Amino acid sequence: MNRVTFQTEMCKGCGLCVSACPKKILRISTKVINGKGHHPAEVANPEACIACGFCATMCPDCVITVEKE
Ligand code: SF4
Ligand code: SF4
Asked: What's the 10 CA to ligand 2 centre distance in angstroms?
């Protein structure tokens, strides 16, 4: 399976990755708050990831790693 992972503690919750995802499977968490006080991005439906890498390219803080199966 393709895999998208986040270094959650580095995320500032800007939402750029959410906008970039063509599959619309990313979201800003409403439950989690990281050490910087931000709601971080998370993947809502990992099975649907096509490993395009758009989210990782868009992230200004290099929070996201995409692995293609
Ligand atoms: S790799 Fe592509 S499909 Fe997967 S979460 Fe990132 S933008 Fe969405
Ligand atoms: S683009 Fe990067 S910093 Fe912004 S919400 Fe997504 S993972 Fe977090």
From this structure: 8
